[in-house]
Every structure is written in C-alpha cells, then in structure tokens.
C-alpha cells in the first residue's frame, strides 16, 4: 500500500559484531561516574539533596497559611488544607513517570526539566485568584516537583560505591525529611508578618528556581547507559563508523515500548515482596506532618545510620565484597499530649519520632538501592507512591479528628496502624 515503509536491505538481518559495542574503558575509566573525584561526588550529592529539600519544604510551608487562605477565599479550613494533601498526592503519582524516564534518558534532565515546571506552578499558587487555582497548582507542583525525591536515589547508586553509599544516602535522607521540618517554621514567620501567605509560595518558587540554575551549571549526567550513548554518538560523528553504538540504544523507542518496558516497572516492583513491604511500612510511618522538633531526631538518626554503615561493611567484606541486603535493616527494627502535662515531654517525644522515621527511611532506601541498583529509581518511585498516598490522606481528616477526639487520643489510630 502507498505510504508503507519497505524494510529491504542486503544487510538487514546481519547483526553487528560485539566489537561495535561502546563501553567504558575498564573499571578505572574516569568517564565512569563511580570514578569521579570525591569532591565532585560530594557536590553532586549536596546539590541533589538541596533540590529535594526545597520541594519537600514546599509541601509543608503551606500548612502555616491554611487559616489565611481559608479566610481570603471564604472556604473552611478542611478545603484550604487540601492544598497539603494535593501536593503530596502529586508526590505519589509523579515518580511513576519521572523515575522510569530517568532510566531511559538519564538523570540530570529528567530531574531538572520537571523541577523547573514545578517552580513555575509554585509562582502560580502565589498569584492565585481563587481556591480552585490554589489547589490545582499545588497538585501540579507536587506532580512535577516529586522528581528529585525518587531520582536522587538512582544518582546515589550511579556515583557511590556500596561502601560509601550508605553515608551518602544518610545525608540525602536528612535533606529529604529536613525540608518539611523547616517549612512550617518559615511559613509561620511569613504569615505572621505583613507579607502574608502568598510570600510562602513566592519564596518557594524563588528557592527552586535558584536551585535549578545552579544545578544546570554544576551537575553532570551520572547515568552510565546515558553517558555511553553520548560517547557512542560522539565516536560515530568523529570516525564516521555508524555501526558504533551503546547497549542502551538497542531498543525500540516507540511509545508502546516505553510504556511496556519502563513506565510499568514501578508497579512491577511494587508486586515484589521486598519492595511492597518496605513501601507499605514507610506509608504508615510517614502518614502525618512533621514539625521542627523532628529535626533533632533526624540528626541523631543520621549519626546512628553512619554507625550502621560501618556494621554493614564488616558484613560486606566478610561476604566476599558482595551485598548483604539484610545488614541494611537493623536501624528500622529497633500518652503525653494532655493539656495538663508540660509541652516539653511532647517535644522530646517528637524528636524520637524524627529519629525513628529517618532511620527507617534511610535503611529502606539503602536496601532498595542495593537490591535493584540500576533500576533503583523505579523501586524508590513505588515506595514513594504508597508513602505519599497515606501522607496526602492524613491532612484531610487529622484536623477534624483533633477537634472531635482531643489531643489525648488523636494519635492512637496511627499507633495501632504502625
């Protein structure tokens, strides 16, 4: 039929030899991200950590302005609080797209392009004229901004050896859970001043845009298959040998192939016992909003996690330098709200909550990265999906629960679930 593509060529079914396959020049190739200088690895980790910090900051800073938003748009506080739930629901669904794309096109631009779009939506929230615009832009801020939450784990697997990765992930985990502890504090300062709630969103957009600019200039691509594709392309242009190619190019880049091979991967991983159990546990642990006192527990958890990393590598070396997955897990194994009781016991208790969920998070993150390595971004996306679904649901009923049940018993349902 006219218009059909005729596939006919004498060499059509002559496969290219393995000599045409472009790879790294041995384990010590400086082009390999695992061999980057230590300083470059640290800078990359810090920048990805800050990139993650500002979007998690965005999820929590809004909570300080709920009453102002409700008053300005003449809605109840439950409707205004939906802005918290919607950004977190965006966190649930965004990684299911962005994590697999990072395993196709590389980490850097799969993170930065959606992140910049999220910053634009944050400015949209700040300029909103009605509550509908606030809620819609909050959801899309989470949908696009969720990308570093999952893809940074893949970058950690790209650049850090198993021996160093545990400590690097601790630093990343602190920035991930540290953002929500700073958000309500900064938000309260802004809403109590003449600036008001809109400047919470303007500040978030400014921070994210500034971080985007720094990342574009400083961060390099770290996904080995994407780097090999780039190397093969340069070699083809330089030597005019069009048979040269990377292994990552040996697939059909059609939409159906992309959907079948990559976008369903997080759901496939969620079907594995390892990923499902880690995800459902994290979902219950993160089903409430953290506050500034959590930061103390987070810092203690970071110290314990670094110590656990030493324990892990004693097991790692004893096992012939092969991953010992269960050795990542020890940190996650391990009624003072009445108005008649001084507030300090509650604050101290919150610090232990921060300690608990941070050790759980970093242990689960290390475990998933060690287990799935190259596809760790998809595994973390599955984990983030369940975690964010519950975290997004809690703000919708936690305020009515607080008012109807009182401060003495409102945490009991969560404790029973955990």
From TrEMBL:
Key words of the record = Membrane, Transmembrane, Transmembrane helix
Highest taxon of source: Eukaryota
One term of GO molecular function: transmembrane transporter activity
A GO term from the CC aspect? plasma membrane
From the record, what ranges are coiled-coil? none
Q: How does the record classify its membrane topology?
A: Multi-pass membrane protein
Domain Major facilitator superfamily (MFS) profile stretches: 42-418
A Pfam match: MFS_1
Q: Where is this protein localized, as stated in its record?
A: Membrane
The record lists the membrane-crossing segments as: 42-65, 77-97, 109-128, 292-313, 343-369, 375-399
Q: Which PANTHER family match?
A: MAJOR FACILITATOR SUPERFAMILY, MULTIDRUG TRANSPORTER, PUTATIVE (AFU_ORTHOLOGUE AFUA_1G10370)-RELATED
Q: Protein name, please? A: Major facilitator superfamily (MFS) profile domain-containing protein
UniProt organism field: Monascus purpureus (Red mold)
């Amino acid at each position: 039929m006219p218009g059909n593509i005729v596939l006919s060529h004498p060499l059509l079914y002559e496969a290219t030899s393995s000599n045409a396959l472009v790879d790294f020049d041995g384990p010590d190739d400086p082009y390999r991200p695992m061999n980057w200088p230590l300083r470059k690895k640290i800078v990359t980790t810090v920048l990805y950590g800050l990139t993650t910090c500002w979007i998690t900051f965005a999820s929590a800073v809004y909570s300080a302005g709920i009453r102002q938003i409700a008053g300005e748009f003449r809605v109840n506080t439950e409707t205004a609080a939906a802005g918290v739930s919607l950004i977190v629901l965006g966190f649930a669904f965004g990684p299911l797209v962005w994590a697999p794309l990072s395993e196709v096109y590389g980490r850097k631009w799969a993170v930065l392009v959606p992140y910049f779009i999220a910053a634009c939506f944050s400015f949209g929230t700040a300029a909103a004229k009605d509550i509908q615009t606030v809620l819609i832009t909050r959801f899309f801020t989470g949908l696009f901004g969720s990308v570093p939450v999952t893809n940074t784990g893949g970058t950690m697997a790209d650049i850090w050896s198993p021996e160093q990765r545990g400590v690097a992930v601790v630093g990343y985990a602190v920035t991930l859970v540290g953002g929500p502890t700073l958000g309500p504090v900064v938000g309260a300062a802004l809403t109590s001043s003449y600036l008001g709630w809109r400047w919470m969103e303007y500040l978030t957009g400014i921070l994210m845009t500034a971080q985007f600019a720094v990342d574009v200039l400083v961060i390099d691509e770290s996904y080995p298959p994407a780097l090999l594709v780039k190397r093969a392309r340069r070699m083809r242009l330089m030597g005019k040998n069009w048979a040269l190619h990377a292994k990552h190019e040996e697939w059909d880049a059609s939409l159906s192939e992309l959907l079948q091979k990559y976008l369903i991967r997080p759901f496939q991983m969620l079907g594995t016992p390892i990923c499902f159990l880690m995800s459902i546990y994290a979902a219950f642990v993160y089903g409430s909003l953290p506050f500034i006192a959590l930061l103390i527990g987070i810092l203690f958890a970071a110290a314990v996690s670094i110590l656990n990393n030493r324990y892990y590598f004693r097991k790692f070396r004893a096992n012939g330098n092969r991953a010992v997955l269960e050795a990542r897990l020890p940190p996650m194994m391990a009624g003072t709200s009445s108005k008649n009781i001084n507030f300090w016991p509650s604050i101290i208790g919150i610090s232990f909550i921060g300690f608990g969920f941070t050790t759980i998070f970093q242990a689960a993150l290390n475990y998933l990265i060690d287990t799935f390595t190259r596809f760790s971004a998809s595994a973390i996306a599955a984990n983030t999906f369940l975690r964010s679904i519950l975290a997004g649901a809690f703000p919708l009923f936690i305020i009515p629960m607080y008012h109807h049940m009182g401060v003495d018993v409102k945490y009991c349902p969560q404790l029973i679930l955990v």
